[in-house]
Design brief:
single chain, alpha/beta, Undecaprenyl pyrophosphate synthetase, six-stranded parallel beta sheet, two-stranded antiparallel sheet, globular, binds 3-methylbut-3-enyl trihydrogen diphosphate, binds magnesium ion
Length: 245
């Protein structure tokens, strides 16, 4: 978290401690739809629209990394039609948005078991990551087919393999070595994790990486979460982390 000089006021300077990495559990799409007499899928569609605005807001606010929990490894248990729709949304989203991401120097990352996605979804995600890999502006990291326990287990398996292959010694295994084997390798841990939708749980999200994150549970459903709601969270964070003289 850097101290950024965001505002030059007459008679003083306002300092703002920006979180570097904001992660969002985008929950409440289904209930948002149901509450309006719409389908859950219409809720997911509205969720994507809200997500686009939140990406723009992070871009405007100079946040460096935004991680978005889009589909958990448990979400396969939902009705087939809903899963199919959720797997179609990234295809449509990246097709529409990739040129804009290139224009805005946005880099796309994917965190999760990408191999386990349906072919067309995987292709769209891999293409977005590939095409934007040279960009060095805002990082938008999609947690897709993501499960924190599975991520840690896979990291353990990889570490054990390295030991068996005599590439590393057991007592070399410390936090910094271990996290190189996680999906999020190279990314700093999130400063803030926001969950919309009113539930106060973590749902298998970034279990290792959230060790020191600030948790913000927001009542509104994700489609109603907007730039103003995000700015409020960032403002609260700033109040706690900036020492105003
Ligand atoms: C979150 O919204 C989006 C995904 C899990 C993909 P939900 O679909 O969980 O919406 P609610 O929590 O049932 O309202
Ligand atoms: C968490 O929401 C996962 C995503 C937002 C992608 P869920 O709705 O799937 O979580 P639970 O089932 O309520 O814990
Ligand atoms: Mg939910």
């Amino acid at each position: 978290m850097g101290k950024t000089n965001v505002e030059q006021e007459e008679g003083g300077t306002t300092l703002l401690s920006l979180p570097k990495h904001v992660a969002i559990i985008m929950d409440g799409n289904g209930r948002w739809g149901e509450k309006r007499g719409l389908s859950r899928s219409e809720g997911h569609f509205a969720g994507v629209q809200a997500m686009e605005k939140i990406i723009d807001a992070c871009f405007d606010m100079n946040i460096k990394i935004l991680t978005l929990y889009a589909f958990s490894s448990e979400n396969w248990n939902r009705p087939k039609d809903e899963v199919n729709y959720l797997m179609y949304l990234p295809i449509k989203f990246f097709k529409q948005k990739l040129p804009i991401f290139m224009e805005k120097n946005i880099k796309i990352l994917a965190t999760g078991n990408i191999e386990g996605l349906p072919k067309a979804t995987k292709r769209a995600v891999v293409k977005a990551v590939e095409e934007t890999k040279g960009n060095n502006g805002l990082i938008v990291n999609f947690a897709l087919n993501y499960g924190g326990r599975m991520e840690i287990l896979q990291a353990c398996q990889k570490v054990i393999k390295e030991i068996q292959d005599k590439k590393i010694e057991v007592d070399q295994v410390d936090e910094s070595l271990f996290q190189r084997f996680l999906y999020t390798t190279g990314l700093p841990d999130p400063d803030i994790i926001i969950r919309t939708g009113g539930e106060q749980r973590i749902s298998n999200f970034l279990l290792w990486q959230s060790a020191r994150s600030e948790l913000h549970f927001i009542e509104c459903y994700f489609p109603d979460f907007d730039k103003k709601s995000l700015a409020k969270v960032i403002y609260d964070y700033d109040l706690k982390h900036t020492h105003y003289a």
